[in-house]
Amino acid sequence: MEKEQWSSKIGFILAAAGSAIGIGAIWKLPYVTGVSGGGAFFLMFILFSLFIGLPLLLAEFVIGRSTGKEAIRAYIEIAPKSKWYLIGILGVVTSFVLLSFYSVVGGWISLYFVKGLAGGVIEEGADYGGLFGQTISSAWSVLAAQAAFLLVTIVVVAKGVQSGIEKASKILMPALFVLFIILIIRSLTLDHALDGVKFFLAPDFSSITSESILFAMGQSFFSLSVGVSVMVTYSSYLPKKGSIVQPALSVVGMNLFIALLAGLAIFPAVFSLGFEPAEGPGLLFVVLPAVFEKMVFGELFLLLFLVLFLFATLTSAFSMLEIVVATLAKGNQKKRAKFAWIAGGLIFLLGIPSALSFGTMAEATIFGKNIFDTADFLVSNILMPLGVFLISIFVPLKIKKEVLRQELLQHSKGGSLLFNLWYNVMRFIIPVVIIIVFLDSLGFI
């Protein structure tokens, strides 16, 4: 049975970076930066991404590339006759739940794009908060948009690693960069744009709190798609020869670069046009339309931003569905398409309550949260931190040190110093860090 592989290193890097670059980098990080004081928070995010996120990414690459198997089977091969395979099951379940409500947001973006094409978003003096509320409360619209978003995701994943995910990523990721550059140029040419650049890039440590430090720490590994074994599955398609350090550095670097571009596209425009950067989650759907309204050709630039955001959301969705499909297909490529449609259909059904959480099912709550927010809390605050913690324990405990050294140093510069640094960070620092972030996310700190 022929095993699928990435056709090139750049194809893998673009797909892995696409998995990482999504709602977290383009939507969540800018608004969290806005409410957490700007430049100081962004600097902490960079440091944590390099010293926490990168080692964890390398750990998942080691698991996947060394075994050549997707989540669940990779853990079984490394630690047979044990319960460690539950990490893989946890990753599959987490991705399944995550995509069920992530696709809802993908649907919202799609709806805004369609409205934008029809000239129905930007209007002088419009109530953008009311428009957003009206959009996400329309049951049939949000369900149709969620289904359309998942349909595109299913079609791409069903085509396979090379013909589907890699080919789509090679188109979408460069397009994403080009769109960002266009938006940044426009944003930086506005009056008083420099105020936004200073807010975003000039650290003001007086605004830093213990809460924002912990949030930057958590965001560093959430934004890299680590903890759900997605990167285990993606790296299982890598050839046995070649460095994994360089691709990991490339993925982290691209993720940070996109976060930088997102800030440079958003904050100069927000400051220039007199809006507050601390607008929270409404930044994309409420504040940015108001910002673009005041620009020449604002409707066009809003459409460009929505296309960019949709591209990034899709590349992340590919990886979430891929881990589920790869687990079900177990390397049998003839069954890939069938399982893509089955898994995609089940994810849509699971996501219906989340899609209706702001309309028909708004009164349905769990511990005071609607179903959408409950699913988000379950994934972001419980399942992902738990997955990261277990992987950080598993790698140094269950994989032989010689195997780790060979995988990490193959065609890589840095030798023993690089390996010892990574190994000790994985063993002694990351588990403690994750416990702190986990307790904070649950409100115990």
TrEMBL record:
Location of this chain's protein in the cell: Membrane
Bilayer topology: Multi-pass membrane protein
TM segment ranges: 12-29, 41-63, 84-105, 139-159, 171-193, 213-237, 249-275, 295-318, 339-358, 378-397, 417-439
Pfam families the record matches: SNF
GO cellular component: membrane
Keywords carried by this UniProt record: Membrane, Transmembrane, Transmembrane helix, Transport
Main localization of the protein described in the UniProt heading: membrane
Protein name: Sodium-dependent transporter
Organism of provenance: Mesobacillus selenatarsenatis (strain DSM 18680 / JCM 14380 / FERM P-15431 / SF-1)
Species lineage: Bacteria, Bacillati, Bacillota, Bacilli, Bacillales
